[in-house]
Structure to design on (81 residues):
């Protein structure tokens, strides 16, 4: 099946913002490995661009610090999210 990875990436991003994991899974269903990679990359980049456009830089810096702390905590605990 041939999907438009750009449109699907936006759909995944919107579903994530709406906290709809079922919709995210449905959007990824049937994608090839290459399409899955393209959609995942596009969704992350779309989310980051939206945050940069809508959120003050200071808040983004706080978000980055929080993400880095989560990663450090997971490494220390031997966990992954």
């Amino acid at each position: 099946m041939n999907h438009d990875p750009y449109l699907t990436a936006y759909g995944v991003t919107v579903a994530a913002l709406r906290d709809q994991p079922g919709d995210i899974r449905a959007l990824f269903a049937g994608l090839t490995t290459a399409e899955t990679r393209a959609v995942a990359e596009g969704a992350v980049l779309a989310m980051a661009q939206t945050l940069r456009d809508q959120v003050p830089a200071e808040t983004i810096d706080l978000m980055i610090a929080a993400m880095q702390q989560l990663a450090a905590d997971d490494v220390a605990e031997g966990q992954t999210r």
